[in-house]
Amino acid sequence: MNGVQGLLAASVISIQNSCFIYPACQNCFSRLVLDSRRFNCLKCGCTGEAKDASYRYRLSLKIADTNDLFDITVFGSCLDPFFGVTAENLQRYIQDFNQLSGETDTESSTRALVQAVETCFIGKRFIFGV
């Protein structure tokens, strides 16, 4: 939490999106553009093979304290304890699950993950560094 200016105790009202993991540049943490074989960072120009892309957590939440509503995004390894694995490993587990189950439509695994995240976070109170 670099540059934390204060702490906010708030409850999670909702999860704002269903994409909790993204391919991230190891240099600048920006989202990578992936194709079937290569990745490219539009921000810093880093490139490589798609199989070597790193993944990072990004959890967008709507939270409320006693007075206000806020939209916040929590990034990175601080979410590892909540998911029980790194973003890299969760991405690998999702890919393996989809391959082993023969899923061509990844919608069911995405729905299951969203439901698990909602159960873990919605209605719970956390302290956020802002």
Output mean pLDDT. 91
Structural class: alpha+beta
Examine the secondary-structure arrangement and name the CATH architecture.
Beta Barrel
- Tell me the number of helical segments per DSSP (H or I, 4 or more residues long): 3
Give the tally of structural domains.
1
As a percent range, the share of strand residues is: 35-45%
- What's the gyration radius in Å? 16 Å
Considering the protein shown, what is the CATH homologous superfamily? Nucleic acid-binding proteins
- Indicate the percent of residues in helices: 25-40%
The helix/strand order is EEEEEEEHHHE
Task: Tell me how many strands there are.
Answer: 8
CATH class: Mainly Beta
Give the CATH topology.
OB fold (Dihydrolipoamide Acetyltransferase, E2P)
Largest sheet, described in full?
5 strands, antiparallel
General form: globular
Q: How is this fold's topology laid out?
A:
Blueprint (H helix, E strand, L loop, with lengths): L6 E9 L5 E4 L7 E3 L3 E4 L5 E3 L4 E11 L4 E7 L4 H4 L3 H15 L5 H15 L3 E5 L1
Antiparallel strand pairs: 1-6, 1-8, 2-6, 3-4, 4-5, 6-7
Please tell me about this protein's structure.
There is one protein chain. By secondary structure, this protein is an alpha+beta fold. The chain has a single domain (7-129), classed as OB fold (Dihydrolipoamide Acetyltransferase, E2P) (Beta Barrel). Helices cover 26% and strands 35% of the residues. It is built from three helices and eight strands; from the N terminus they run βββββββαααβ. The chain has helices spanning 80-83, 87-101, 107-121, and strands spanning 7-15, 21-24, 32-34, 38-41, 47-49, 54-64, 69-75, 125-129. Strands 1, 2, 6, 7 and 8 form a five-stranded antiparallel β-sheet that branches. Strand 6 and strand 7 form a beta hairpin. The longest helix is centred in the C-terminal third of the chain and has 15 residues, at 87-101. It starts with 6 loop residues before the first strand and ends with a strand. The relative contact order is 0.24. The model has no long low-confidence stretch (mean pLDDT 91). One of its GO terms (biological process) is negative regulation of intrinsic apoptotic signaling pathway in response to DNA damage. Residues 9-95 form the Replication factor A C-terminal domain. Pfam families: Rep_fac-A_C (PF08646). InterPro entries: DDIAS, NA-bd_OB-fold, Rep_factor-A_C. It comes from Gymnorhina tibicen (Australian magpie).
